[in-house]
Amino acid sequence: MQWENVNLICWVVFTGLLFTRFWMISILYAIWWYVDRDTPRQGGRQSAFMRHWTMWKCGKDYFPISLVKTAELDRFRNYVAGFHPHGILTTGAFTNLCTEGVGFSSVFPGIRSHLMMLQWCFWAPVYRYYIMSGGLVSSEKESAAHILSRKGGGNLLSIVVGGVQEALNARPGAYKLVLRNRKGFIRLALTHGADLMPIFSFGENDIHDQVENSPGSWLRGSIPLFYDCRVFQYSFGLMPYRRPITTVVGKPIEVQKTPHPSQEEVDSLHQRYMKEVENLFEAHKLKYNVHRDQHLEIC
Fold first, then answer.
1. Average pLDDT over residues 257-283
2. Chain-centroid distance, C-alpha 216
3. Distance CA 296, CA 299 (A)
4. CA–CA distance, 63 with 241 (Å, rounded to integer)
5. What is the pTM of this model?
6. For 80, phi and psi rounded to 5 degrees?
7. Cβ burial 184-214 (10 Å sphere, 16+ → b, else e)
């Protein structure tokens, strides 16, 4: 189910209760919601209990989903990671970084994972606490600064750099990244002295088919419209295809803290980062069902 649909359902229930004898529940919740309104931009509210739900392991086994590290992470350092590609529903990003379905804390001991999400997703009643419990935080600058300024290190802040624009390119066999002009996360890493690293999720684009939305068509300006396989017939339906997703975490690029980075410094690190993304893809593509003649397209 898409985030937009879940938001709508939560709003319908919240509003509907106001017209029943349970109206006080919505009123009391609204008061608490107002008091707690800044939490998504102040590190969120992770729940180890939620991250360890059995359902996440079931979801991991369905595809299956796996997490691969190529280097150790220093628990005394903070990290900014670019996650590629977006896919339709960022299934690999959520499962690997916001749950213990694949055992993130065992793969990267001492590292606390956060994944940025659009601010409006935290407006939905109740749903906001569900997504925060997994480590999702607001995509605002204030939110990033709060996490990366924590003393002691051990924080991983992941950003799905390509966003919705990249999601519109997500279809099986596609490897097109929206990255060339996305430099905000680079400046963020420099400003806070957080090491920078790429994450590439092989198979992320393969679990859904997307309605044709070629550039210039009216569908290009909407959210991705997709269809999947049926439960008992593998042709058309609502269940994602059972195709493996392997999320590979690249080696960090050491970044020196530069409180006021120049455009030249941002551009230089951005060029290096794009090269590292390409290297990560090329180094692992043959292991994860990508043809040797297939290369990344960065736009």
1. 98
2. 27
3. 10
4. 7
5. 0.90
6. -115, 125
7. ebbbbbbbbebbbbbbbbbbbbbbbbbeebe
CA 61 distance to own-chain centroid: 19
> Tens of pLDDT along 47-61?
999 999 999 999 999
- Residue 146 has φ and ψ, to the nearest 5°, of -60, -45
Query: pLDDT at residue 237 above 70?
Result: no
Selection from 41, 194, 184 nearest residue 111 by Cα? 194
Residue 276 to residue 200: CA distance in whole angstroms: 11
Dihedral, 158, 162, 167, 168 alpha carbons, nearest 10: 170
Percent share of the chain, pLDDT over 70: 90
pLDDT band at 234 (very low <50, low <70, confident <90, very high): very low
Query: What pLDDT is recorded for position 123?
Result: 87
> How many other β-carbons are positioned within 10 Å of the β-carbon of residue 174?
16
CB-based contact 96:52 (threshold 8 Å)? no
Q: Are 284 and 248 in contact (CB under 8 A)?
A: yes
